[in-house]
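Appendix B, record 7
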Amino acid sequence: MKRIHYKEYQPSMGILIDVQHPEDYAKNPTPNSTNIYADRLLLNYKTLLKKTSKYYIICNKGFLSRKVVSILEFYGYDVTQVIKE
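Structure tokens (predicted):
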């Protein structure tokens, strides 16, 4: 599993997706990110993602992002976990 720290992320690298719950995202949004809750993303990945794009997955504590990256990586997507701290 590929990992980088948030301070290393640049928008030109790919799409940053914050997978935390929308209520948590509203309280603590990640700059430059799109919020798609982990469950929604995993249930609809075929319609939400393209295999030709690069995705950077982040959440507050790292648990959800690790799970999402593991599953999407298995399905053949180019995903990297982003660590906030």
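Remarks on this record: The beta strands are 2-5, 15-18, 34-35, 54-58, 78-83. The CA atoms of residues 9 and 75 lie 23 Å apart.
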